[in-house]
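User: Second chain of the day. Same drill as before.
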Amino acid sequence: MLERRLCFESVANAAYTLYYGDSALAFPRYDYATLFAPQATAVAGTLGPEQANPAYQVRPDDRPFTERHPALMWVALIAVIALLGSVALRSPRAPSSQNS
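Assistant: Same format as last time:
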């Protein structure tokens, strides 16, 4: 596994929780990278064992209706084409009878 380092200001003897894995979220952007200055007194922490989040709820599907049901758009498109085709076939143009 690729080693990653997470740097942040912390309070001594405090417990922190790291949540990860939500692909719907964008990557965070912090100004800490510009303000970060390595310190000789920095303390390395360790992660405990991975645990499932008991409060986790599946994110509701907030995509538009047409993206959740792409076949419906094709069915509607074919139905409209068939309707327009039947109207076109049922209404032939009669030749105009103009006497000059």
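Helices lie at 32-35, 65-68, 70-90.

User: Great, on to the next one.
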